[in-house]
Amino acid sequence: MQRGLPMQPTVVLLKEGTDTSQGKGQLLSNISACLAVAETLASTLGPRGMDKLIVNDRGEAQITNDGATILKLLDIIHPAARTLVDIARAQDAEVGDGTTSVVLLAAQLLKEVRSYIEEGVSPHIIMKGFRQAAQLAVKRIEEIQVKVDKSDSEKFRALLIKCASTSMSSKLIHSEKPFFSNMVVDAVLCLDQDDLDENLIGVKKIPGGGMQDSLLIRGVAFKKTFTYAGAEQQPKLFKDPLILSLNVELELKAEKDNAEVRIDQVSDYQAIVDAEWEIIYRKLEAIEKTGAKVVLSKLPIGDLATQWFADRDIFCAGRVPAADLQRVVQAVGGAIQSTCSDIKREHLGTCGSFEERQIGGERFNIFEDCPKAKTCTLILRGGAEQFIEEVERSLHDAIMVVKRAVKNGEVVAGGGAVEMGLSAHIRKHAFSIPGKLQLVHIAFAKALEILPRQICDNAGLDSTDILNKLRMRHANGYIWFGVDVDGPEGVRDNMEAFVWEPSLVKINAINSATEAASLILSVDETVRNPQSENPAAGPSLPPGAAQRALRGRGRGMPRR
Amino acid sequence: MAEHQALYATDEYGRPFIILREQGRKVRTHGVEAIKQHILAARTVANIIRTSLGPRGLDKILISPDGEITVTNDGATILSQMEVEHQIARLLVQLSKSQDDEIGDGTTGVVVLAGALLEQSEALLDRGIHPIRIADGFDRACKVAVEHLDKISDTIEFSTTNTENLFKTAMTSLGSKIVSKEHEKFARIAVEAVMTVADLDRKDVSFDLIKVDGKVGGSLADTTLFKGVLIDKDMSHPQMPHTVRDAHLAILTCPFEPPRPKTKHKLDITSVEEYKKLQEYEKEKFTDMIKRVKDTGANLVICQWGFDDEANHLLMQNELPAVRWVGGPEIELIAIATHGRIVPRFEDLTTAKLGRAGLVRELTFGTTRDKMLVIEECANTKTVTVFVRGSNKMIVDEAKRALHDSICAVRNLIKDNRVVYGGGAADISSSIAVAKAADEIPSIEQYAMRAFASALDSIPLALAENSGLSPIETLTEVKSRQVNEGRSTLGIDCLGKGNLDMREQFVYDPLISKRQQYLLATQLVRAVLKIDDVIIAGQAED
């Protein structure tokens, strides 16, 4: 193009092919992009939310309903829309639930103010209004939230179950809600109540069986490792055994590469062989002397050692995955030993019972009644791998919610009730402020209504009708009325119906949504460098945030 | 094909936003259209194996990429070998696999049921019912059906001496298979195998103790059950005795050769004397090893590794029969069966560590020179091996699968001795119960429950169709008789025996198998119905 007009001097600021767009147009286009993303997610919200099937270019399929997971799998590259991905991820990391809501809310905030932008209202005023409104909303939540009474453990447990089942209601495991919510609550209550490290809840997946065959093990369980001949002759059940965790290879060939031997005489031959045996026998005898009945090692335990242990009624498992061994050590006490000599009693762990048990098509090594750390393992079953993965994601969300509830203990009503309440509150407040800010506040209030509206839409209810009913109830002071997807009325007191959510989820959602919306509003120019020249080298990664997003967060995606 | 692209939005000027990576290559299907596509895919799969259901079900030939032929009518096997590409169809494959893993039987039925449920839900979707409401309705219906199954189930009695009922269940499970010519024999084998290894107090059957082995040759009628271990090996030397009575087995995992250090080593031989010494040393070692074995009183050596001709010869001379190159799992099985210990080196060999077996003999077959070794009358009586014979490989493989199914069926009864009646009787009865329950429900789920009831009819329908009966006529007749006579044992008379009562025909299905079918199918249908958006990344072009 420029070659055609050689005489015209052009100032070339940026590399050729760089895409720049700026101004209001850019702002509006960013908003549209975010809305498009949010629209994809919208149908997953609420108890009648639908799932997405996403197939990647390797042909692997995932079925999911979790907002953060969907966004991650969509592989979004639009720079503004990426912001939404980031807030969903942040919400997931922070509270673990409400990832869909946060994206919807942010997008709706943008949608409400779009017309103001078109009319030329400065984005800064809008941002300011949003911040004020968000502060108001958070303050309001803190005012109305209900503190849970922890003193009565029976009641507290019932409460936690309610929270867990609310979080599960939109997921695949909806039909088995009572079963799984009990399981989740038990799992969380197993943990140390001050620390609540959810990493101590192990999750193992075994395809086969129905979902209701899943079980909770109060202890550590891991899949039986590869064993050599002889393992079947080892005892498979111990009461109060001593457990030794090793990082030692118990195989004859262990020292193979560390030495080279030169022999002069044939008679020395036997000596070398004997020495080798001596080495491993010394190790094994040292282990036996410790009194340990269960020997675990990160490294292989060879056939010789396996049979030797079988002879002495000791159970052994080699090649235990590092994470599993770590959890075992945390649970049973002791420490991982990297040598066999000088092992004292305090280096050994113990547990109430150890057993190797058949679960579905697999055998599992199970440690129960562990004295040290409180830990548990969820063993998930299901008809297909995709099921189990989705079950795992749903349980993760529920575990996070329960964990938050245990930690903070403050709840609000779900099902859109709290959003309607906040909306009414902010709207009322808005009329007391003069100027453009009033409009922004009202827009914020309106945006909050997207959640109940979407829940209605997904459930096939008439959202306008129900929203009007809700507004009326809230105006009359029934602050806990929300959407009811089952009943004929369409609305109900969700506090009484036990549709509860930890207030932290909501506070966090409102804060991050507001921040994301403000961020998008404050951008008025995108400078995009041309794609790198070599497309064969695979899709080039945008720097920074993009790579972080692609790397995932260590859950949800199966390790490949 | 604009609508099939993963196009998300356009701006005011109609330019598409690029929101997703490589958006142009991604395909997106959305809403009801997506669900319908899934239903179609699932139904296609279900229709393929529908004709394999029941005693008159037909077989499929599957040819693998490397030309290997499988003939089977086992649902799980067909589906897993079809290498299904479609995502939803693949879910069905996993469904039948998980039925196979858990129950081992009824793998065709579960897919047929899931296909029928999806077919029904398509009609409901057309009426504008929300997919999740349909799924909820199915869940409710499933609950009713499962409860009803509990109600109509019968307990059957069996004991170690009276296995007649188990035998009949095994017969039902074998009814549709290629082995039906010999199915009485196979059923006996299945029952005997399970009863031998079963722990009736713990209701546990360890499949590790049942080994199914097969060899081409002979006919299905030659299939036999050995109470012991069968290994596909022979004595290391043809002149060794072919039978050892009252055997004491030394089970070794070290080779019959002079021990060598595992450490890298190098032996420099510089003179003839040294060479001779080495030879001497080796010979001495051999005699020493054989002496050690002999001293313990062993009269048979099972060795995981090999030994060279010299050792072989020495063993022969010392009248110590030996078997070499026995695999790890087999070694273990032998050790368990004979109560022996696996010994890693000669120094550790003691009398106490020897395994014991009453009879070890070599089997020779027909004109081939194939030999196998049978270890019988073992110290531990709880190991069995079924040795399947057949005229070709396909038949042997299919017979193995059939046997596995019937062993599973018997195992399930030992776990839980409640049965429902086969031939579609239980399905028809549940269908009636669900349809009745549907009328009492006020909400929209009523439709879904009725649909569930009709889906349950699809199993007897397929049975009747496959048996060459007029499906609708037969089903309606059975249904009306069930309602009028209140007998839930009436089913489809597939074999034309002129008797509809399945109890009298002894057609049983374990309750847990049926239950699992309903639960799994409902769960799968829910998962399929819940998906409203499919995004498929294009294949990488390279």
Mean pLDDT of chain A: 79
Distinct helical segment count of chain B: 16
* Number of E strands of chain B: 18
- β-strand percent of chain A reads 15-25%
The count of DSSP E runs of length 2 or more, i.e. the number of strands of chain A, is: 22
Q: What separation lies between the terminal Cα atoms of chain B?
A: 23 Å
Stretches of chain B where pLDDT is under 50 for at least 5 consecutive residues are 1-5
Tell me the helix content of chain A. 40-55%
* Class by alpha and beta content of chain B: alpha/beta
Which pair has the most extensive contact? A-B, 85 and 78 residues
Q: What composes the largest sheet of chain B?
A: 7 strands, mixed
Approximate shape of chain A: elongated
**Strand residue content of chain B:** 15-25%
Find the structural class of chain A using helix and strand composition: alpha+beta
Mind telling me the C-alpha Rg of chain B? 30 Å
Mean pLDDT of chain B: 82
| Gyration radius from CA atoms of chain A, angstroms | 30 Å
Largest sheet: number of strands, sense, barrel closure of chain A: 5 strands, mixed
Q: Specify the helix fraction band of chain B.
A: 40-55%
Low-confidence segments of chain A: 534-560
